[in-house]
């Protein structure tokens, strides 16, 4: 099991101070194995991220020995994209952009992308669940096919209603879609914040998702990093150990008021302590 930090925690604090190089350096100093990158921290339009920027990420990863865990917040700070929009032109534009995000993730050296973006997938009035399911599944299949040569993972993320989401709230839905698509590059990410709200037994859902679980997000119900709230991560770590999970657990936060270093250090220390307890 490896631990990563989602980089928007640095960028949101001070995007001028927290250069790409400094982000990797800080991650190394704090003991993280990887960084998960939000494309908008490089450019609000992922297609406008330059080769120079991409190479800087690759070079910093190599220099500091900190992996690029992948990319997430894919459609944040964008306009005109929606995966389940009733307008076929909007859906096609969105799917093509998502395919380019797969290519970006591969170029950055990542191993997966998190398909969350609740606002850009929420089912609109007049659209049925079945229609949204078909359109979303088609987009995920297209992304998975682009990812095949690099064995890059496209991770469907169940998200809670609290995130402004109304489509694919629970792990069983994400597993069902991944199974229907039936590509080795399409799987599931589970998230502690959402899972703690929508699942009756999150640790059990982790075990049920074993075949498809390609990524995991660690956060507290108070939207901060582990250790800043009451969430007990020991049962979660026990479940991850039970399925021999070897991929990344990334700390993702939604509350950016705390100092980035303080936030990250306590979060990582909490996860490592929970992992040790789970092994006992």
Helix count, per DSSP? 10
CATH homologous superfamily assignment: Divalent-metal-dependent TIM barrel enzymes
- Kindly estimate the percentage of residues that lie in beta strands according to DSSP: 5-15%
Mean pLDDT: 96
Task: Indicate the structural class.
Answer: alpha/beta
Radius of gyration equals 18 Å
Q: Quick one: overall form?
A: globular
Query: Domains counted in the coordinates: how many?
Result: 1
**Terminal CA distance:** 16 Å
Oligomeric status: single chain
The biggest sheet amounts to: 8 strands, parallel
| Poorly predicted runs | none
User: Which architecture name does CATH use?
Assistant: Alpha-Beta Barrel
CATH topology (fold) name: TIM Barrel
Strand order within the widest beta sheet: 3-2-1-8-7-6-5-4
- Helix percent reads 40-55%
> What is the H-and-E element order?
EHHEHEHEHEHEHHEHEH
Q: Quick one: how many beta strands?
A: 8
Task: Look at the structure and give the CATH class.
Answer: Alpha Beta
Kindly describe this structure.
- By secondary structure, this protein is of the alpha/beta class.
- It has one domain (2-279): TIM Barrel, CATH 3.20.20.
- Helices cover 44% and strands 14% of the residues.
- The protein has an eight-stranded parallel β-sheet.
- It starts with a strand and ends with a helix.
- The mean pLDDT is 96.
Which terms would index this structure?
single chain; 8-stranded parallel β-sheet; globular; TIM Barrel; alpha/beta; 280 residues
């Amino acid at each position: 099991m490896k631990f990563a930090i989602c980089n928007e925690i640095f960028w949101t604090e001070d995007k001028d101070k927290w250069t790409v190089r400094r982000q990797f350096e800080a991650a190394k100093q704090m003991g993280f194995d990887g960084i998960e990158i939000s494309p908008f921290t490089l450019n609000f339009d992922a297609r406008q991220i330059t080769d120079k920027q991409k190479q800087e990420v690759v070079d910093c990863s190599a220099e500091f020995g900190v992996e690029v865990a992948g990319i997430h917040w894919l459609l944040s700070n964008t306009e005109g994209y929606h995966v389940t929009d009733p307008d076929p032109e909007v859906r096609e534009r969105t799917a093509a952009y998502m395919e380019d995000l797969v290519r970006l993730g591969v170029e950055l050296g990542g191993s997966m992308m998190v398909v969350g973006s609740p606002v850009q997938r929420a089912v609109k009035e007049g659209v049925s669940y079945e229609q949204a399911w078909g359109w979303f599944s088609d987009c995920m299949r297209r992304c998975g096919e682009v990812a095949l040569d690099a064995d890059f993972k496209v991770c469907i993320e169940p998200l809670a209603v609290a995130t402004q989401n109304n489509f694919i709230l629970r792990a069983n839905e994400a597993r069902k879609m991944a199974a229907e698509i039936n590509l080795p590059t399409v799987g599931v990410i589970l998230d502690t914040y959402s899972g703690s709200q929508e699942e009756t037994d999150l640790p059990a859902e982790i075990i049920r998702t074993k075949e498809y679980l390609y990524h995991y997000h660690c956060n507290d119900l108070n939207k901060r990093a582990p250790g800043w709230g009451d969430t007990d991560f020991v049962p979660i770590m026990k479940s991850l150990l039970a399925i021999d999970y070897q991929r990344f657990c990334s700390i993702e936060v939604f509350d950016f008021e705390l100092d980035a270093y303080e936030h990250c250090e306590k979060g990582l220390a909490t996860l490592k302590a929970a992992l040790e307890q789970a092994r006992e």
